[in-house]
């Protein structure tokens, strides 16, 4: 395939057009010499992407300057831009990153336009969501379910997963959150959620279908911190949206034509209006998995992708008022995206943060400009893992220690550092804690330990090696010991136990969706099967996941792949659960694929630095009254 070269006017001429889409489009039209000979449909799609890319390009130019400031990038006369260009050859919009260089006359030379062929099978002949977000031909769910050809749950799941694919300009870009024909109000379940797409993406990767994942990664990158505001306030640079929707809108100046646009939601439309802190972290984790699975490292090496990684890291590593190395977030900033008392330093965010830091470290290209960022990253990895392993860990021994804590200790070497009053130990925990096993608590704040067991945080602490090997085994021991509560009739409880009565009223704000043992408040979420599977495989205990998958298989297809189950035992389909929830389907598929090929779990697993292993084991086994120091570390981490 050939390439096109484009000559851009200088930034100073381009930027004044920022607020006017038409001049912007016009200016971009004149900027790019694009291939001709495309059919009218292709031309329309191209027009769209130009519009999107035009505004993105200008915004990105502006963003890049602040990156230079933070990072100390210095490229002399060279300007960095995440320039997205389009080639409709093959009808695929491909964004291209690059360094735009001045030619000495104030003109910026754009990088070459990259082109690639799409693999044809992913087009929506197989059925799925067309560019307007509507379900397209290729068979409806009912047809699919009724088909005699479906001879196994797995086949059915694959059909449903393919039917959930969302198309943008004719090409797959993600999967819809739920495709429930029985529910007339779609709310935002007709969108592509970043976190929901992760198991879909992993399933496609494990099946060797890489294009949809690459397309998802690159398109969501374009949406990163798009100018969305709430009450005149914009989210921080680097924030990835919670979800996006493909909208079909009339083409500017042409009533008879329409175009596709990507409309991201950073939480400003979401119930609760919370920024999704987990989105960017999952994006980094998926990016690494894509490279490891496909062997195609060119995506992570791209300049715009490297910039995207750095922007996420900078947002997470930015200094604030916090004294702890854990990431400080508001309530509902992750999978549990409603008020559930998980503000502060919830475990799930910390586990994803740690994992994303390690994944990013593997992918960041060594260059002078990133040395400060990598130093900050290394420091945070050490401090974060020490903090979580030491202060979030709980088992019988630790519980007994807390039970006997002295309080009001003023000193640098206090044992009860966070001034936890022993009365906080909830009565349920005294009974519940098994003699063999332990877990990481849900949250730690001054004078407060949230003792609830949160599944995703614990499972991902195993996967990412945030927990030590001993702790990881102990968590699986606890899962086995508490099987009848955590798995029961449907894997896997999102958290245990549920808030009830006055506690529920105060903590959830009397949320009728989060009533005890429902939804986020102790509901059972089949999607968690895949994280459980990765964790079990990593610890060489796949039989635990196999057992859970067998339990799910008894009902999940018959129940039409619900989003979640209610009651203590997970016996009922959730009160307001969607059916045909994509991540329930994809989570099941990922579990099956990984159990059949356990080595593939390595695309998600982070292995620990050997230096840290020895340093931490000596620290953790030390007398708690001993003053903490870092002498055990061979390597010094200096900010
Ligand atoms: C609910 C879940 C959230 C998920 C979304 C789409 O809001 O809490 O984690 O991403 O639905 O499935």
From TrEMBL:
It catalyses: Hydrolysis of terminal non-reducing beta-D-fructofuranoside residues in beta-D-fructofuranosides. This is Alkaline/neutral invertase. Its EC number is 3.2.1.26. Belongs to the glycosyl hydrolase 100 family. It comes from Vitis vinifera (Grape). It comes from the Eukaryota. It holds the Pfam family Glyco_hydro_100. Gene3D superfamilies: 1.50.10.10. Invertase that cleaves sucrose into glucose and fructose. Keywords: Carbohydrate metabolism, Glycosidase, Hydrolase. Coiled coil: none annotated. The lineage of its organism: Eukaryota, Viridiplantae, Streptophyta, Embryophyta, Tracheophyta. InterPro entries: 6-hairpin_glycosidase_sf (IPR008928), 6hp_glycosidase-like_sf (IPR012341), Glyco_hydro_100 (IPR024746).
